Amino acid sequence: MVKCFCYWDSGYEKMPEMIKYIYNHNKEISEKYKFELILVTDENVKNYIYLPPGFMQFEANHKSDIVRIYCLHKFGGFWIDMDVILIKDLNLLWSALISSGKYAILDIELNSKIGCATMAMLANTVTSTFCYNYINVLLESYPMEQKIKWDFLGPANVKLLYLTMPENIILNNYEKVKRGCNFITWADKPGFSKEKWLLKTPESAKEFADKLDANVDCYYVITWTIYKKNDMSNNLIDQVFNNKRSVFYYLTMNETKRKEYESSLRYASIQDIINNKPLLLTQIIDNYLNQKPAEKPIIDKIPEKSKVVQGYAYHVSVAAVFKNETHALDEWIRHYLSIGIDHIYLINDFSTDAYKPIIAKYGNKITLFENNVITSEFGRQSLIYEKYLRPILGETEYMAIVDLDEFLYSPARLSFKDFFSKHDKYAQYTINWLIFGSNGYIDQPESLIDSFTMRAKTVNNDVINPYDFKSIVKTSKLIKFSVHSHECLGDTLFLGSESEEMVINHYIIQSLVFYMEVKCVRGCADNFQNCLNKQAVEEQRKNRKRFNFIDKLANEEVDDRLKLQK
């Protein structure tokens, strides 16, 4: 499970009320999307990191800088300052970092200044080691009796990191962040000058919040100094989080607030009808609002709702986008049909190899779409799902959405019927990847299942340096497609990597030749590589950085359970 660290030296009970409100919201977000939000305090910090000499004597901001880098170096994951509001699934951003072949994500704070209020970093990499060593050298060489400058351990560290190894870092530029996480900055003095977040009308605030939510690059927003520098005195929470003119009202929308907001919309809508519609309809709605029955029935008979019995052609199906994967296509199809999948939906993403004869062998077991979604924007894969899978959701009760290097199965040989019967209350089932390495193969072997049997170890029901998961959705509950997990109406069941019910073997790199000659050159359906410059992608391919990184992790433990089930 991906970790997200934050720090407040004196602990939860002594947080300012606004910081406590933000933390509680972030906790709800982490529980919703199944990532781990870890609050580090002076009381529990020893549970996570080794403390450098004199740690407890440092100012709170310097302790925070040390905790940030030590935790990210040791564990990997995300860091957020306590004034950061999470609004989306960090698993998706983590997956994007992994897919990029880079080691860290940083944001420009203002103009050209790199910030460290939020960051993501892989553990034990050149970037985390650089930051870790920077702090240690500084602490060892800096006279303890001399006060450390405010920016020495944090901002100066990340600035030097980027200047030293920009090729290893995704840097979100100012044009990107000023439309997202940094739509306000500390320079705006947002506790006093509120015009960027406290707008003139609730409608304009809701519209702006919706734009932030729709921005694929915006996973969080920063409130900066509002909590400690403001002119709102005891009215702070009401102004920032309960005022419908505040952008933050909509970005921290929990279930209670959502019901209140939707109720106000319904009431406003009904009042609008009363003010503009004929008398007969006015009388009906007026009775409803006042909770009084009409003295005489105005409508003799209300038509009954149609009783539609929802029938599906298939119980469970699997869907995938593919490009130039004939080396695995036949084995992948045979695997899914053998474990009880009723139907397969395949979306060809401009393949140049001979995929059609393979698919033709399976007749009406497969529906094939030829993709024509063309865009250079990140998020293309979700657009493809929306175009081709949305229209056929009524055909299948459950749909697994995976890639052709992902083989879902049950180690306990549990049937889909029994699995869904056992967990019927859930709208989505997210299933952890098991990350498989190359097994030392240079050339691509005939069978993925038979040949790749070495994988990364699992610890505490997760993979070391966890990569991600894929999901099965109950189609009647699906609201919006994503890539790894989807927005659904209802709860999600998360199955860890040690689950015996369902796991996914992810043959992420396969052989060296496949990785270098196919995977690195075909691009990705979601256009993530467009976030990188071509030179960086080519350097990654030539230098085998990501291949070596994953292969080192993923050749530690034998797992031939799927092979033995064939």
Automatic annotation (TrEMBL):
According to its UniProt record, where is this protein located? Membrane
Where does this chain mainly localize? membrane
Q: Which Pfam families match?
A: Caps_synth, Glyco_tranf_2_4
Q: Which UniProt keywords apply?
A: Membrane, Transmembrane, Transmembrane helix
InterPro entries in UniProt = AfumC-like_glycosyl_Trfase, Nucleotide-diphossugar_trans
Which species does the entry assign this protein to? viral metagenome
Annotated GO molecular function terms are: glycosyltransferase activity
What membrane topology was assigned to this protein in its record? Single-pass membrane protein
Instruction: Pull one GO CC term from this UniProt entry.
Output: membrane
UniProt entry tagged with the keyword Glycosyltransferase: no
Q: What is this protein called?
A: Uncharacterized protein
